[in-house]
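Its record is retained below.
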Amino acid sequence: MAFLLSDRIAAFIKLGQQLASLTEEEKSTLFYQAQQQNSWFTFSSLAQAIEGLQVMLLEEDLNRWISTYDNKEPARPREIGIMMAGNIPAVGFHDLLCVLLTGHRACVKLSSLDIVLMQWLINQLTSLEPRFSQRVVVEEMLKQKEAYIATGSDNSARYFTYYFGKYPHLIRSNRTSVAVLSKHTSDEDLQKLGEDVFSYFGLGCRNVSKVFCSEESQLQRLLEIFSRFQEVASHHKYFNNYEYNKSIFLVNGTPHLDNGFLLLHQSKELVSPIGVLYYELFEEEEKLKEELKRLESTIQCIIADASFSLPGVIPFGKSQFPQVWDYADRVDTIAFLLGLERK
């Protein structure tokens, strides 16, 4: 029996519905196992990741997304090697979704940091749609696949390019996200910004690691409002990072602001260490827009209020809930996979 696109979409819709119906006991068991493997994966982080997957797998959005592409059935399914990252829970799921919906075979190398949750998701998917068991295989070594999708750091991206460069490939490296605080930014916006900064302890590419401020007075206000996120200080790894960076600032006499669990430091850099949020002051909005356009190859998300008119700007508090068509590195994964027909 033909395994049609409509069947594949239906399976992912069912998976999203199943995630929404998980009992507290089921989540507790799964989350405990995932946290035992990776202590950065707290129960709240895992719950947020599951909620994000539910958003990604809404029936209306899946159908709307896929309907924008032509020739969605490959003449010959290819073996696609997927090297998954593990910085935040289930970060590699979207690549798996893209490969399977385009009719290819997913050969997955799971991150050692995210085996439990990703393997569980694969098991649930193949249980809901047994035909996927012939389309998904977890492997330790991804040798001689027909194409590759790999995600990692700048260093690992160079490694991936060296080994996979002769094959069709989509290789992603470090990115981060920034926020713009204008005179229109409200206290409510700043509270929501805390979600963009502290979710997953700042480990994801969609986490804000730098804010651009129109007024220096916004910084103290920011730290005061962020006090509601002080729970992150109870996580030993996060707090160790915070204390380490604080000690470096103090030893070197580096100017900074501190609210007891977050350090604000003025810098031209984009990617801040865990426990640190960089900031930069700006005067002219148009010049800032030009600068952000220049840096777009290293920025995943720009978070700002509606007054900051730049394509792709995300509202405060929404960075960790991407729609299914929001691609990592802004590179269309579906187009890449469909384009293999021409290679």
In short: Residues 236-252 form the longest helix (17 residues). The mean pLDDT is 94. The domain at 176-303 is CATH 3.40.309.10 (Aldehyde Dehydrogenase; Chain A, domain 2). The radius of gyration is 21 Å.
